[in-house]
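Record type: ASSEMBLY
Status: queued
Input:
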Amino acid sequence: MPICKQCKLEKDYSEFYKHPKTKDWILHFCKECKKEYARNNRSKEQDKKRYWSNPRKRLNVIYRWMMSRCYNVNCRNYSRYWKRGIKVLWNNYKEFYDDMISSYIIHWEQNWKTKNRQTQIDRINNNWHYCKENCKRVNAKENNQHNKF
Ligand SMILES: [Zn+2]
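Status: finished
Output:
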């Protein structure tokens, strides 16, 4: 009897799904393990969906990323921002959120179902700080082009 590669149990052939691309024509995970695997993967997909369909969560990620760029010495981009004196002019996340959420949601609603759904925040003047007047919502593609200075 075949042994499941996942749970290592020897099981009857009927406990395996058939699979045309393996030597003995069965999948090497038993039905139970296969189902478990599918369950896990599905929840990952759902998490992703939930994440992308929640602009509030995204804004929080963007805030932390922005703070890290400007204030975390271990950040890959730190020297690019800190050396040039780029600061975050919001005092805390709440101020940032209040200023940005409405326009962020507008941009996100227009873009999240397209391939460029990664709404990001970019500075209009690259040499000026992160603040309401200097930030616009762009999608990831636009942002990459803009950052080539
Ligand atoms: Zn198994």
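Annotation: The pocket of zinc ion is lined by residues 4, 6-7, 9, 29-30, 32-33 (CB under 6 Å).
Annotation: Strands lie at 16-18, 26-30, 119-123, 135-139.
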